[in-house]
Write a structure and sequence with these properties.
Distance between the termini: 64 Å
Helix content: 10-25%
Strand order of the largest sheet: 1-14-15-2-3-5-4
Number of helices: 7
Amino acid sequence: CYIIILFFIFSCQSKSSRHYKNTIKESSVSTIKKSSSKIDLRKETFSLVTWNIQDLGRSKNGEEIVAIAKIIKDYDIIAIQEIVGKDPAGIKAVAKIVDELNRLGAKWDYRVSNPTKSPSSNMSERYGFLWKTSKVSIKGKPKLDDKLEDLCYREPFIGEFNLKGKSNTIRIINYHARKHNDKPEEEIIYLKDYQKRFRSNNLIICGDFNLNEKHAVWDGFYKKGFINALSNTATTLKIKCKSGSYLNHSIDNIFYTNSTKVIESGSIDFVKFCKNLADARKLSDHLPAYIKFQ
């Protein structure tokens, strides 16, 4: 009798573990937004992912690190928000993700920012850039934007990248805004000055903005030629499914100019079904957002 009970418990646990791994393997792209721009087969296509990986540090075990790597492995540049700031485990978790990515077939490199100069240590975080070295290289050293450190709770992290086959570099501004209740628009407004500061349209602003692309703060960006990659696309996860829905707010996005020819954009849904929500939230409470561009 005891043998039968033990076998039953072990069998249930094994099925649960296999189910979790299969869910991650089958993570899929959702809410795809196709551009009217046609793909030029003579040119290289690149991809950028932005992902708020909730509390990236000690909270992620080995299985979760592997799952994260599998979700992003087919993309070229990854901008990460919410890396733990004051604990070295944040940097170590990024290194583990990159180690796992290297085991999956392609060579990757990365840089992690210093902790942001936030109003409190609890608000302070790090950012990260990961990139596939066969298609992307970094120019110089990415840095936190010291000009905005007194204006933003978490000043943006700026990296300049060389893309294979392209003569011009592209700057990527990686940013995590203050909470919605703290009026993130009061700091987002300063991001629209990057074109003037860098005297260039070759830039992308991506991250977790804690408000959606319809907010009035973006009007000034759109007038300057910025385009939102995602529209009406919820990217945060509810704690529990309600009426069969596990998606919540549309706050993660990528903003680019016409210097970047985007051919596809969307979110990466690694949840897929309500029954997977609890396990999915162990990775993050956000979905990644992405663009493919030339």
